[in-house]
Amino acid sequence: MATEFVGKVISNRMQKSVLVAVDRLVKHKKYDRMIKRTTKLMAHDEQNDCNVGDTVRVHISRPLSKRKCWVVTQILHRARVFDAESAAQAAAADAAAHHAGGGLGAPSFAASALTGSGSSGA
User: Fold this and answer.
1) Where are the alpha helices (DSSP H) in the chain?
2) 32, part of any domain
3) CA 87, CA 89: separation in Å to the nearest integer?
């Protein structure tokens, strides 16, 4: 059994604990094909730094609880987290800038038709 794995955080709902999914490839004896197997490991996250989707490195440790005997030692890649509140603020700021600019996105032919500055054929 290996003493360290790299996996993806699939749950961080617990305090100081995360659930890490570790994928591995195993060979099927009968069909001689590679199959992907996933193992879920409960790991200790002391500072609650991990978010869902982060790629982390976990090391084995002494048993910390009934299911938890792994410790997150490094966050290799942080996932992009969607924050609804900041997205709503950005959308409101974008809409305010668009309205203040006087409709910069309007086509030029519509503006010329309204003002009558377009060339007429007669």
Assistant:
1) 84-100, 108-115
2) yes
3) 5
